[in-house]
Design brief:
467 residues, alpha+beta, Outer membrane efflux proteins (OEP), 4-stranded antiparallel β-sheet, 11 helices, 69% helix, 8% strand
Protein backbone atom coordinates (compact mmCIF):
# COMPACT_ATOMS: atom_id res chain seq x y z
CA UNK A 1 0.00 0.00 0.00
CA UNK A 2 1.42 3.33 -1.04
CA UNK A 3 1.78 6.06 1.63
CA UNK A 4 -0.53 8.40 -0.21
CA UNK A 5 -3.19 5.66 -0.37
CA UNK A 6 -2.88 5.00 3.36
CA UNK A 7 -3.16 8.70 4.17
CA UNK A 8 -6.20 8.96 1.95
CA UNK A 9 -7.91 6.03 3.70
CA UNK A 10 -7.11 7.36 7.15
CA UNK A 11 -8.49 10.77 6.28
CA UNK A 12 -11.72 9.25 5.03
CA UNK A 13 -11.88 7.02 8.09
CA UNK A 14 -11.58 9.97 10.44
CA UNK A 15 -14.00 12.02 8.38
CA UNK A 16 -16.75 9.37 8.59
CA UNK A 17 -16.03 7.66 11.91
CA UNK A 18 -15.50 10.75 14.06
CA UNK A 19 -19.06 12.11 13.68
CA UNK A 20 -20.43 8.60 14.13
CA UNK A 21 -18.41 8.08 17.33
CA UNK A 22 -19.36 11.49 18.75
CA UNK A 23 -23.05 10.90 17.99
CA UNK A 24 -22.88 7.47 19.62
CA UNK A 25 -21.24 8.79 22.78
CA UNK A 26 -23.67 11.69 23.11
CA UNK A 27 -26.75 9.57 22.46
CA UNK A 28 -25.68 6.71 24.72
CA UNK A 29 -24.36 8.64 27.71
CA UNK A 30 -27.58 8.23 29.66
CA UNK A 31 -30.34 5.66 29.60
CA UNK A 32 -33.99 5.83 30.59
CA UNK A 33 -34.58 4.93 34.26
CA UNK A 34 -37.39 2.53 35.13
CA UNK A 35 -40.12 3.36 37.61
CA UNK A 36 -38.58 1.05 40.24
CA UNK A 37 -35.19 2.72 39.74
CA UNK A 38 -36.63 6.20 40.23
CA UNK A 39 -38.39 5.08 43.38
CA UNK A 40 -35.27 3.40 44.75
CA UNK A 41 -33.11 6.46 44.09
CA UNK A 42 -35.65 8.72 45.76
CA UNK A 43 -35.61 6.47 48.82
CA UNK A 44 -31.81 6.41 48.84
CA UNK A 45 -31.73 10.22 48.79
CA UNK A 46 -34.10 10.30 51.76
CA UNK A 47 -31.90 7.93 53.74
CA UNK A 48 -28.74 9.80 52.72
CA UNK A 49 -30.17 13.10 53.99
CA UNK A 50 -30.78 11.49 57.38
CA UNK A 51 -27.56 9.49 57.56
CA UNK A 52 -25.32 12.01 55.76
CA UNK A 53 -22.39 9.72 54.90
CA UNK A 54 -19.12 11.61 54.97
CA UNK A 55 -20.43 14.28 57.35
CA UNK A 56 -21.12 12.12 60.41
CA UNK A 57 -18.05 13.27 62.33
CA UNK A 58 -19.43 16.80 62.24
CA UNK A 59 -22.89 15.68 63.34
CA UNK A 60 -21.84 13.37 66.17
CA UNK A 61 -23.24 14.56 69.49
CA UNK A 62 -20.86 15.35 72.32
CA UNK A 63 -20.66 12.72 75.07
CA UNK A 64 -20.28 14.44 78.44
CA UNK A 65 -21.54 14.08 81.99
CA UNK A 66 -25.00 15.28 80.90
CA UNK A 67 -25.30 12.59 78.23
CA UNK A 68 -28.67 10.85 78.02
CA UNK A 69 -29.52 7.45 76.64
CA UNK A 70 -31.03 9.13 73.58
CA UNK A 71 -27.72 10.90 72.97
CA UNK A 72 -25.86 7.61 73.20
CA UNK A 73 -28.26 6.02 70.72
CA UNK A 74 -27.85 8.90 68.23
CA UNK A 75 -24.06 8.74 68.55
CA UNK A 76 -23.99 4.97 68.02
CA UNK A 77 -26.32 4.95 65.03
CA UNK A 78 -24.17 7.55 63.28
CA UNK A 79 -20.79 6.16 64.33
CA UNK A 80 -21.19 2.38 64.25
CA UNK A 81 -19.11 0.85 61.38
CA UNK A 82 -21.58 -2.01 60.99
CA UNK A 83 -24.35 0.48 60.22
CA UNK A 84 -22.06 2.32 57.80
CA UNK A 85 -21.18 -0.90 55.96
CA UNK A 86 -24.87 -1.81 55.65
CA UNK A 87 -25.63 1.66 54.28
CA UNK A 88 -22.99 1.47 51.55
CA UNK A 89 -24.12 -2.04 50.59
CA UNK A 90 -27.63 -0.61 50.23
CA UNK A 91 -26.32 2.33 48.16
CA UNK A 92 -24.36 -0.06 45.92
CA UNK A 93 -27.49 -2.17 45.39
CA UNK A 94 -29.42 0.91 44.26
CA UNK A 95 -26.66 1.81 41.79
CA UNK A 96 -26.79 -1.72 40.43
CA UNK A 97 -30.35 -1.08 39.17
CA UNK A 98 -28.94 1.31 36.57
CA UNK A 99 -26.39 -1.28 35.50
CA UNK A 100 -29.02 -3.98 35.07
CA UNK A 101 -31.46 -1.89 33.00
CA UNK A 102 -28.76 -0.44 30.70
CA UNK A 103 -28.02 -1.72 27.22
CA UNK A 104 -24.67 -3.39 26.62
CA UNK A 105 -21.92 -1.05 25.43
CA UNK A 106 -21.71 -0.70 21.63
CA UNK A 107 -18.53 -1.83 19.87
CA UNK A 108 -16.49 -0.01 17.28
CA UNK A 109 -15.21 -2.36 14.57
CA UNK A 110 -12.60 -2.05 11.84
CA UNK A 111 -11.96 -4.41 8.95
CA UNK A 112 -9.58 -4.34 5.97
CA UNK A 113 -9.27 -6.58 2.92
CA UNK A 114 -5.66 -6.71 1.76
CA UNK A 115 -4.21 -8.45 -1.25
CA UNK A 116 -1.27 -6.67 -2.88
CA UNK A 117 -2.93 -3.44 -1.91
CA UNK A 118 -5.70 -2.47 0.49
CA UNK A 119 -8.93 -3.48 -1.20
CA UNK A 120 -11.42 -2.34 1.44
CA UNK A 121 -11.35 -0.25 4.63
CA UNK A 122 -14.50 -0.79 6.70
CA UNK A 123 -14.99 0.93 10.07
CA UNK A 124 -18.27 0.20 11.79
CA UNK A 125 -20.39 0.19 14.90
CA UNK A 126 -22.04 -2.88 16.43
CA UNK A 127 -24.63 -3.00 19.22
CA UNK A 128 -26.36 -5.81 21.10
CA UNK A 129 -30.05 -5.34 21.85
CA UNK A 130 -31.67 -7.73 24.37
CA UNK A 131 -35.37 -8.51 24.19
CA UNK A 132 -37.18 -5.37 25.33
CA UNK A 133 -38.67 -6.79 28.57
CA UNK A 134 -35.47 -8.39 29.83
CA UNK A 135 -33.85 -5.13 30.90
CA UNK A 136 -36.96 -3.98 32.74
CA UNK A 137 -37.24 -7.29 34.60
CA UNK A 138 -33.55 -7.15 35.51
CA UNK A 139 -34.12 -3.65 36.88
CA UNK A 140 -37.09 -4.90 38.93
CA UNK A 141 -34.96 -7.74 40.33
CA UNK A 142 -32.19 -5.31 41.24
CA UNK A 143 -34.80 -3.03 42.88
CA UNK A 144 -36.04 -5.91 45.01
CA UNK A 145 -32.45 -6.65 46.01
CA UNK A 146 -31.92 -2.99 46.93
CA UNK A 147 -34.99 -3.13 49.18
CA UNK A 148 -33.55 -6.19 50.89
CA UNK A 149 -30.28 -4.29 51.39
CA UNK A 150 -32.15 -1.33 52.84
CA UNK A 151 -33.87 -3.62 55.32
CA UNK A 152 -30.48 -5.11 56.22
CA UNK A 153 -29.36 -1.53 56.91
CA UNK A 154 -32.42 -0.98 59.10
CA UNK A 155 -31.72 -4.25 60.91
CA UNK A 156 -28.18 -3.02 61.62
CA UNK A 157 -29.64 0.20 63.03
CA UNK A 158 -32.01 -1.71 65.31
CA UNK A 159 -29.33 -4.20 66.39
CA UNK A 160 -26.98 -1.35 67.26
CA UNK A 161 -29.68 0.44 69.24
CA UNK A 162 -30.39 -2.76 71.15
CA UNK A 163 -26.73 -3.34 71.95
CA UNK A 164 -26.40 0.22 73.27
CA UNK A 165 -29.51 -0.20 75.43
CA UNK A 166 -28.33 -3.58 76.70
CA UNK A 167 -24.88 -2.34 77.71
CA UNK A 168 -26.27 0.86 79.22
CA UNK A 169 -28.93 -1.06 81.13
CA UNK A 170 -26.38 -3.48 82.58
CA UNK A 171 -24.09 -0.62 83.62
CA UNK A 172 -26.94 1.35 85.17
CA UNK A 173 -28.22 -1.57 87.24
CA UNK A 174 -24.65 -2.48 88.17
CA UNK A 175 -24.57 0.78 90.09
CA UNK A 176 -27.81 -0.18 91.83
CA UNK A 177 -26.33 -3.53 92.88
CA UNK A 178 -23.21 -1.83 94.22
CA UNK A 179 -25.33 0.67 96.15
CA UNK A 180 -27.32 -2.15 97.74
CA UNK A 181 -24.15 -4.03 98.68
CA UNK A 182 -22.63 -0.90 100.22
CA UNK A 183 -25.75 -0.33 102.29
CA UNK A 184 -25.81 -3.97 103.32
CA UNK A 185 -22.12 -3.82 104.24
CA UNK A 186 -22.86 -0.84 106.48
CA UNK A 187 -25.75 -2.80 108.01
CA UNK A 188 -23.47 -5.79 108.61
CA UNK A 189 -21.05 -3.44 110.36
CA UNK A 190 -23.84 -2.29 112.65
CA UNK A 191 -24.73 -5.90 113.40
CA UNK A 192 -21.10 -6.57 114.27
CA UNK A 193 -21.16 -3.66 116.73
CA UNK A 194 -24.30 -5.07 118.34
CA UNK A 195 -22.73 -8.52 118.57
CA UNK A 196 -19.47 -7.10 119.93
CA UNK A 197 -21.33 -5.13 122.62
CA UNK A 198 -23.21 -8.25 123.71
CA UNK A 199 -19.97 -10.27 123.64
CA UNK A 200 -18.20 -7.71 125.82
CA UNK A 201 -21.14 -7.85 128.20
CA UNK A 202 -20.69 -11.61 128.36
CA UNK A 203 -24.11 -12.35 126.91
CA UNK A 204 -22.94 -14.13 123.72
CA UNK A 205 -19.85 -15.89 122.51
CA UNK A 206 -17.21 -14.61 120.08
CA UNK A 207 -18.90 -16.70 117.40
CA UNK A 208 -21.50 -13.98 116.74
CA UNK A 209 -18.79 -11.38 116.14
CA UNK A 210 -16.93 -13.70 113.80
CA UNK A 211 -20.09 -14.44 111.84
CA UNK A 212 -20.66 -10.72 111.36
CA UNK A 213 -17.06 -10.28 110.18
CA UNK A 214 -17.41 -13.23 107.76
CA UNK A 215 -20.56 -11.66 106.34
CA UNK A 216 -18.73 -8.36 105.77
CA UNK A 217 -15.86 -10.10 103.98
CA UNK A 218 -18.33 -11.91 101.74
CA UNK A 219 -20.03 -8.64 100.86
CA UNK A 220 -16.69 -6.95 100.12
CA UNK A 221 -15.77 -9.77 97.73
CA UNK A 222 -19.11 -9.46 95.93
CA UNK A 223 -18.54 -5.73 95.58
CA UNK A 224 -15.06 -6.31 94.19
CA UNK A 225 -16.45 -8.79 91.65
CA UNK A 226 -19.12 -6.31 90.57
CA UNK A 227 -16.56 -3.51 90.27
CA UNK A 228 -14.40 -5.78 88.15
CA UNK A 229 -17.36 -6.53 85.84
CA UNK A 230 -17.60 -2.83 84.99
CA UNK A 231 -14.65 -3.04 82.56
CA UNK A 232 -16.16 -5.63 80.17
CA UNK A 233 -19.52 -3.83 80.30
CA UNK A 234 -17.84 -0.54 79.35
CA UNK A 235 -16.04 -2.38 76.54
CA UNK A 236 -19.41 -3.61 75.27
CA UNK A 237 -20.84 -0.09 75.39
CA UNK A 238 -17.81 1.32 73.54
CA UNK A 239 -18.13 -1.36 70.88
CA UNK A 240 -21.84 -0.61 70.46
CA UNK A 241 -21.01 3.10 70.10
CA UNK A 242 -18.40 2.33 67.45
CA UNK A 243 -15.52 3.61 69.60
CA UNK A 244 -12.02 2.17 69.35
CA UNK A 245 -10.39 0.51 72.36
CA UNK A 246 -7.88 3.37 72.79
CA UNK A 247 -10.60 6.04 72.86
CA UNK A 248 -11.90 7.41 76.19
CA UNK A 249 -14.68 5.56 77.96
CA UNK A 250 -18.13 7.05 77.35
CA UNK A 251 -20.11 8.44 80.29
CA UNK A 252 -22.95 6.33 81.66
CA UNK A 253 -26.25 8.23 81.90
CA UNK A 254 -27.22 8.78 85.53
CA UNK A 255 -30.96 9.01 85.00
CA UNK A 256 -32.97 5.92 84.23
CA UNK A 257 -34.96 6.07 80.98
CA UNK A 258 -37.57 3.54 79.96
CA UNK A 259 -39.83 3.42 76.90
CA UNK A 260 -42.80 1.16 77.70
CA UNK A 261 -44.94 -0.10 74.84
CA UNK A 262 -48.44 1.31 75.23
CA UNK A 263 -49.98 -1.27 72.93
CA UNK A 264 -51.94 -4.45 73.46
CA UNK A 265 -50.31 -7.81 72.62
CA UNK A 266 -52.50 -8.11 69.51
CA UNK A 267 -51.41 -4.65 68.33
CA UNK A 268 -47.77 -5.47 69.02
CA UNK A 269 -47.99 -8.71 67.05
CA UNK A 270 -49.70 -6.99 64.11
CA UNK A 271 -47.01 -4.31 64.19
CA UNK A 272 -44.27 -6.92 64.28
CA UNK A 273 -45.71 -8.67 61.22
CA UNK A 274 -45.87 -5.34 59.38
CA UNK A 275 -42.57 -3.78 60.45
CA UNK A 276 -40.11 -6.46 61.49
CA UNK A 277 -37.15 -5.88 59.14
CA UNK A 278 -36.21 -9.55 58.98
CA UNK A 279 -39.68 -10.48 57.71
CA UNK A 280 -39.72 -7.60 55.25
CA UNK A 281 -36.27 -8.59 54.02
CA UNK A 282 -37.57 -12.12 53.37
CA UNK A 283 -40.54 -10.62 51.50
CA UNK A 284 -38.12 -8.63 49.33
CA UNK A 285 -36.24 -11.85 48.59
CA UNK A 286 -39.51 -13.45 47.49
CA UNK A 287 -40.08 -10.53 45.11
CA UNK A 288 -36.52 -10.96 43.85
CA UNK A 289 -37.22 -14.63 43.16
CA UNK A 290 -40.46 -13.73 41.35
CA UNK A 291 -38.50 -11.37 39.10
CA UNK A 292 -36.07 -14.22 38.49
CA UNK A 293 -38.95 -16.40 37.29
CA UNK A 294 -40.14 -13.71 34.88
CA UNK A 295 -36.60 -13.29 33.60
CA UNK A 296 -36.17 -17.03 33.14
CA UNK A 297 -39.34 -17.14 31.02
CA UNK A 298 -37.80 -14.41 28.84
CA UNK A 299 -35.05 -16.86 27.89
CA UNK A 300 -37.46 -18.07 25.21
CA UNK A 301 -37.19 -14.67 23.54
CA UNK A 302 -34.32 -13.96 21.15
CA UNK A 303 -31.75 -11.19 21.52
CA UNK A 304 -30.55 -9.08 18.64
CA UNK A 305 -27.40 -7.42 17.43
CA UNK A 306 -27.22 -4.75 14.78
CA UNK A 307 -24.35 -3.02 13.08
CA UNK A 308 -23.32 -0.71 10.33
CA UNK A 309 -20.03 -0.69 8.41
CA UNK A 310 -18.78 1.68 5.71
CA UNK A 311 -16.39 0.70 2.88
CA UNK A 312 -14.16 3.76 2.59
CA UNK A 313 -12.39 2.48 -0.52
CA UNK A 314 -15.57 2.45 -2.57
CA UNK A 315 -16.56 5.54 -4.47
CA UNK A 316 -19.17 6.45 -3.50
CA UNK A 317 -18.85 5.02 0.03
CA UNK A 318 -20.64 1.68 0.38
CA UNK A 319 -22.68 1.11 3.57
CA UNK A 320 -23.11 -2.42 4.92
CA UNK A 321 -25.82 -2.84 7.55
CA UNK A 322 -26.00 -6.13 9.46
CA UNK A 323 -28.55 -7.74 11.74
CA UNK A 324 -28.23 -10.86 13.89
CA UNK A 325 -30.56 -12.70 16.21
CA UNK A 326 -29.98 -15.42 18.79
CA UNK A 327 -31.90 -18.67 18.42
CA UNK A 328 -33.10 -19.97 21.83
CA UNK A 329 -33.48 -23.54 20.63
CA UNK A 330 -32.27 -25.44 23.71
CA UNK A 331 -35.62 -26.05 25.32
CA UNK A 332 -34.22 -28.20 28.11
CA UNK A 333 -31.88 -25.37 29.11
CA UNK A 334 -34.78 -22.89 29.20
CA UNK A 335 -36.92 -25.31 31.18
CA UNK A 336 -34.08 -25.79 33.66
CA UNK A 337 -33.70 -22.01 34.10
CA UNK A 338 -37.43 -21.65 34.78
CA UNK A 339 -37.45 -24.60 37.19
CA UNK A 340 -34.41 -23.24 39.05
CA UNK A 341 -36.06 -19.82 39.37
CA UNK A 342 -39.27 -21.40 40.69
CA UNK A 343 -37.24 -23.44 43.17
CA UNK A 344 -35.53 -20.28 44.38
CA UNK A 345 -38.94 -18.65 44.92
CA UNK A 346 -40.18 -21.70 46.84
CA UNK A 347 -37.06 -21.58 49.00
CA UNK A 348 -37.57 -17.86 49.65
CA UNK A 349 -41.21 -18.46 50.59
CA UNK A 350 -40.19 -21.29 52.91
CA UNK A 351 -37.59 -19.05 54.58
CA UNK A 352 -40.27 -16.38 55.01
CA UNK A 353 -42.62 -18.90 56.64
CA UNK A 354 -39.82 -20.15 58.89
CA UNK A 355 -38.99 -16.58 59.89
CA UNK A 356 -42.65 -15.90 60.72
CA UNK A 357 -42.71 -19.00 62.92
CA UNK A 358 -39.45 -18.02 64.62
CA UNK A 359 -40.71 -14.48 65.10
CA UNK A 360 -43.85 -15.81 66.79
CA UNK A 361 -41.73 -17.89 69.15
CA UNK A 362 -39.45 -14.95 70.01
CA UNK A 363 -42.44 -12.66 70.47
CA UNK A 364 -44.06 -15.11 72.88
CA UNK A 365 -40.81 -15.62 74.81
CA UNK A 366 -39.97 -11.94 75.21
CA UNK A 367 -43.57 -11.01 76.02
CA UNK A 368 -43.57 -13.67 78.74
CA UNK A 369 -40.25 -12.47 80.14
CA UNK A 370 -41.56 -8.92 80.25
CA UNK A 371 -44.78 -9.93 82.03
CA UNK A 372 -42.91 -12.25 84.39
CA UNK A 373 -40.41 -9.54 85.36
CA UNK A 374 -43.27 -7.07 85.87
CA UNK A 375 -45.09 -9.48 88.18
CA UNK A 376 -41.88 -10.19 90.10
CA UNK A 377 -41.24 -6.47 90.54
CA UNK A 378 -44.74 -5.99 91.93
CA UNK A 379 -44.33 -8.94 94.29
CA UNK A 380 -40.94 -7.76 95.55
CA UNK A 381 -41.87 -4.10 95.94
CA UNK A 382 -45.30 -4.58 97.50
CA UNK A 383 -44.93 -7.76 99.54
CA UNK A 384 -41.56 -9.41 99.96
CA UNK A 385 -39.28 -6.44 100.62
CA UNK A 386 -41.56 -4.68 103.16
CA UNK A 387 -41.95 -7.92 105.08
CA UNK A 388 -38.25 -8.69 104.87
CA UNK A 389 -37.47 -5.31 106.39
CA UNK A 390 -40.03 -5.96 109.12
CA UNK A 391 -38.45 -9.34 109.77
CA UNK A 392 -34.99 -7.73 110.01
CA UNK A 393 -36.21 -5.10 112.45
CA UNK A 394 -37.88 -7.76 114.57
CA UNK A 395 -34.76 -9.94 114.51
CA UNK A 396 -32.55 -7.01 115.48
CA UNK A 397 -34.80 -6.07 118.39
CA UNK A 398 -35.05 -9.67 119.46
CA UNK A 399 -31.29 -10.16 119.34
CA UNK A 400 -30.67 -7.01 121.36
CA UNK A 401 -33.14 -8.30 123.94
CA UNK A 402 -31.52 -11.72 123.97
CA UNK A 403 -34.58 -13.45 122.52
CA UNK A 404 -33.16 -14.28 119.07
CA UNK A 405 -30.02 -16.04 117.93
CA UNK A 406 -27.51 -14.12 115.81
CA UNK A 407 -27.91 -16.64 113.00
CA UNK A 408 -31.57 -15.61 112.71
CA UNK A 409 -30.54 -11.96 112.54
CA UNK A 410 -28.00 -12.79 109.85
CA UNK A 411 -30.57 -14.73 107.82
CA UNK A 412 -32.98 -11.80 108.03
CA UNK A 413 -30.24 -9.46 106.77
CA UNK A 414 -29.43 -11.84 103.90
CA UNK A 415 -33.12 -12.08 102.98
CA UNK A 416 -33.32 -8.30 102.63
CA UNK A 417 -30.17 -8.33 100.48
CA UNK A 418 -31.48 -11.17 98.34
CA UNK A 419 -34.83 -9.49 97.71
CA UNK A 420 -33.18 -6.13 96.94
CA UNK A 421 -30.85 -7.73 94.39
CA UNK A 422 -33.75 -9.74 92.97
CA UNK A 423 -35.68 -6.51 92.48
CA UNK A 424 -32.78 -4.97 90.57
CA UNK A 425 -32.37 -8.14 88.47
CA UNK A 426 -36.09 -8.23 87.67
CA UNK A 427 -35.99 -4.57 86.67
CA UNK A 428 -32.99 -5.19 84.40
CA UNK A 429 -34.60 -8.29 82.82
CA UNK A 430 -37.80 -6.36 82.15
CA UNK A 431 -35.95 -3.51 80.46
CA UNK A 432 -33.85 -5.85 78.34
CA UNK A 433 -36.92 -7.85 77.31
CA UNK A 434 -38.69 -4.59 76.47
CA UNK A 435 -35.74 -3.37 74.40
CA UNK A 436 -35.47 -6.62 72.47
CA UNK A 437 -39.23 -6.79 71.99
CA UNK A 438 -39.58 -3.24 70.69
CA UNK A 439 -36.39 -3.06 68.60
CA UNK A 440 -35.56 -6.50 67.25
CA UNK A 441 -39.01 -8.10 67.15
CA UNK A 442 -41.56 -5.33 66.64
CA UNK A 443 -39.04 -3.22 64.69
CA UNK A 444 -39.78 0.18 66.24
CA UNK A 445 -36.85 2.44 65.42
CA UNK A 446 -35.75 4.88 68.13
CA UNK A 447 -36.06 8.65 67.62
CA UNK A 448 -33.19 10.29 65.71
CA UNK A 449 -32.35 7.03 63.95
CA UNK A 450 -30.97 7.60 60.41
CA UNK A 451 -33.93 5.86 58.76
CA UNK A 452 -37.11 7.39 57.32
CA UNK A 453 -39.90 8.03 59.81
CA UNK A 454 -37.82 7.02 62.82
CA UNK A 455 -40.38 7.09 65.60
CA UNK A 456 -42.24 4.82 67.94
CA UNK A 457 -45.55 5.20 66.12
CA UNK A 458 -46.29 1.74 64.70
CA UNK A 459 -48.86 3.14 62.28
CA UNK A 460 -46.25 5.23 60.47
CA UNK A 461 -45.06 3.50 57.26
CA UNK A 462 -41.36 3.26 56.62
CA UNK A 463 -39.34 3.07 53.44
CA UNK A 464 -38.75 1.45 51.12
CA UNK A 465 -42.20 1.00 49.68
CA UNK A 466 -43.04 -2.24 47.97
CA UNK A 467 -43.73 -2.26 44.24
Amino acid sequence: MQPEQLNFCLRRLLKLAAPLLVATLLAGCKGIPTQSERRARSELQTVARLYQPGARQVRLPVLDTNTTLRTLLTFALLNQPRVEAAYYEYAAAVERITVERSLPDPRLTFEMDIQDVVMTVMPGLMAEVPWVQKLRIRADAASAESQARYLAFESAVLQTAYEVKRAWCQLYFLEDRLRILRETLALAGELEQIARARFEAGRVTLQDVLRAQIEQERLRTEMANLEDSRRPLLAQLKAALGLQADQPDPPVPRQFESAPLDLSPDQLWATALARNPRLRQMEAEVRLAEAGIRLAHQSRRPDFNAGLEADLKAAPVMWRPSLGVTLPIWRDKIAAEVAAAQARKSAAQARLSAEQIQLAVEFAEKSFLYREATRNLTLLAEALLPRAWQSLDAARAGYSAGKTEFINLLEAERAVLEFQLAEVDAHARRELALAELSLLIVGLTPPDAPVPNAATNPETPILPSTP
